[in-house]
Automatic annotation (TrEMBL):
Name assigned to this protein: Mg chelatase-like protein
Recorded coiled-coil stretches: none
Domain MCM C-terminal AAA(+) ATPase: 316-415
GO molecular function: ATP binding; DNA binding
UniProt keyword terms in alphabetical order: ATP-binding, Nucleotide-binding
Length: 541
């Protein structure tokens, strides 16, 4: 009896389990059995592996072959096991030394000609291997940069099974032809399944097709909305922009990700892992360092927004926007059940999806921006707007955003139409993105210094009990907010969120703790009721 084993990784969401791939050869009628809860795509690897081995110049063993994937109780799927299965078979056939395979983790799909193709989820798979104590991994050559992001991991990138056999046998490594540079690399095709819904409305902090980078200086006027945008970015607070069409709600939202600080190394790995699973990593950029921006259409289903699908669930928009911005334009047009499904990830920072094929936990700590018109026609409350919507239609339209969802939104701002003077005045450009981003970065640094030694990084993450007991405000600063709680205009959750926003305002102003003005400003930004506090140039004054 001949036996060999190597390892690969089975992914469930962004979590991985190291799987031991065992190959056993016994005398008997030539057959190939694959056991260990494989799915359809993994079962088909028998034909891919056989053809790849033969076309790589190796001899296929004409014996009874059994390949086992252990632990057998873990469901396994995808084509990423092909490379490990092929090497285990060659080790059992003594074409490769079985001892050289034992401590290797192999991830990659095999083409019929023996080429090694990339698969989705390389980064989380290598992270799982590192957590399990492995330090050598074999991946497709085009995915080597992504795998190398894991510290302390020795990465071998191969272009074909023929090359891997030569490396493991200490033979001369053959040259493999590269893909033509004047057309898309066919090796990258299929990483993102067309029609899967992932990646729609998704972009990072990049320039548009015409080379113009959206800048806050393009927004005329809108001092209150610009202030809310800055406070939202500085503290990670959710924001609701309401106003008539053409007032600038979408312009403001599209510039939010540019004023957010760059991702830390840990955050970048989290974001990259989710995007790797979805297969939407930009070519040539193995690590995403800018906060993502995701803006799904209002016809999005529950599965595309929260995650799901048949079989093992796939990441939804809330996970693709992790550590970034989720913008829901025309929010009342979304299905109410879909919107209410956001309540749990807004509180917990993750989403748990249960399906018959398994339970998947995905990160979902995003900054939510909602935009809505005041009524179906958008002209309600405008002077001379001639809104013809019946009062009942206006109430139904505004009621599509449920109270529990809006109670989780820290900032609510009315975006008024821009006046002619603001739009046409010479030198009327607002503050540029770079200047606002610098203030946001400084405010976040103050919050990080205050929260050092705690599990929280931004003011929006700190529980209200901790804010009230560990970090005190100025004496009497909360009086007006507490009266609003007694009158019922604020909930207990709302009071905590007002306190969080007040700390963010204090950080933006360089103050050690919030004063009465900070709390009143936070109350004004949450309720929309003016307390006579001026807003100048997008900066709380």
């Amino acid at each position: 009896m001949a036996f060999a084993r190597t390892c690969s990784v089975a992914l469930v969401g962004v979590e991985g389990v190291v799987v031991e791939v065992q190959a056993d050869l016994e005398p008997g009628v030539a057959a190939f059995a694959l056991v260990g809860l494989p799915d359809k795509s993994l079962t088909e690897s028998r034909d891919r592996v056989r053809a790849a081995v033969v076309n790589s110049g190796a001899e296929w063993p004409q014996k009874k072959l059994t390949v086992g994937l252990s632990p057998a109780s873990v469901p396994k799927g995808g084509s990423g096991f092909d490379l490990a299965v092929a090497c285990a078979v060659l080790g059992a056939a003594e074409r490769l030394d079985p001892q050289t395979l034992t401590d290797l983790v192999m991830i990659g799909e095999l083409g019929l000609d023996g080429r090694v193709r990339p698969v989705r989820g390389i980064l989380p798979a290598v992270l799982a291997a590192a957590d399990a104590g492995y330090d050598h991994v074999v991946v497709p050559e085009c995915s080597a940069a992504e795998a190398a992001l894991v510290p302390g991991m020795s990465v071998l990138g191969v272009r074909s099974l023929r090359q891997l056999i030569a490396v493991l046998s200490d033979e001369a490594v053959p040259e493999e032809p590269q893909a033509a540079t004047d057309r898309p690399d066919p090796m990258l095709a299929g990483l993102c399944v067309p029609g899967g819904g992932v990646g729609a409305g998704l972009s990072a902090r990049t320039s548009s097709d015409d080379g113009h980078r959206p800048d806050l200086a393009d927004v005329a006027g809108q001092y209150a909305a610009r202030t809310a945008l800055e406070v939202s970015a500085a503290g990670g607070h959710h924001l609701f922009l309401q106003g008539p069409p053409g007032a600038g709600k979408t312009m403001l939202a599209e510039r939010m990700s540019a004023i957010l600080p760059p991702l830390t190394r840990t955050e970048a790995l989290e974001v990259t892992a989710v995007h790797s699973i979805a297969g939407i990593l930009p070519p040539g950029r193995p690590l995403l360092e800018a906060p993502p921006y995701c803006a799904p259409h209002h016809s999005a289903t529950m599965q595309s927004l929260v995650g799901g699908g048949s079989g093992l669930p796939r990441p939804g928009a809330v996970s693709l926007a992790h550590r970034g911005v989720l913008f829901l334009d025309e929010a009342p047009e979304f299905n109410s059940r879909v919107l209410d499904a956001l309540r749990q990830p807004l509180e917990s920072g993750h989403v748990v999806i249960a399906r018959s094929a398994g339970v998947m936990r995905l990160p979902a700590r995003f900054l939510m921006l909602l935009a809505a018109n005041p009524c179906p026609c958008g002209r309600h409350s405008l002077l001379g707007g001639s809104c013809e919507c019946p009062p009942a239609a206006i109430r139904r339209y505004q009621a599509r955003l449920s109270g529990p969802l809006l109670d989780r939104v820290d900032l609510r701002v009315m975006v008024e139409p821009v006046s002619r003077a603001e739009l046409t005045a010479t030198g009327a450009r607002g503050e540029p993105t770079q200047r606002v981003a610098e203030r946001v970065r400084e405010a976040r640094e103050r919050a990080t210094a205050r929260l050092v030694g705690t599990p929280w990084h931004t003011n929006s993450e700190v529980p209200g009990h901790e804010l009230r007991t560990r970090w005190s405000t100025a004496q009497g600063a909360l009086d007006q907010a507490e009266r609003a709680l007694e009158r019922g205009t604020l909930t207990a959750r709302g009071l905590d969120r007002v306190l969080r926003v007040a700390w963010t305002l204090a950080d933006l102003g360089g103050r050690d703790r919030p004063g009465t003005g900070d709390v009143e400003m936070a109350l004004q930004l949450r309720t929309g009721v003016s307390h006579g506090l001026p807003l100048m140039n997008g900066v709380p004054s």
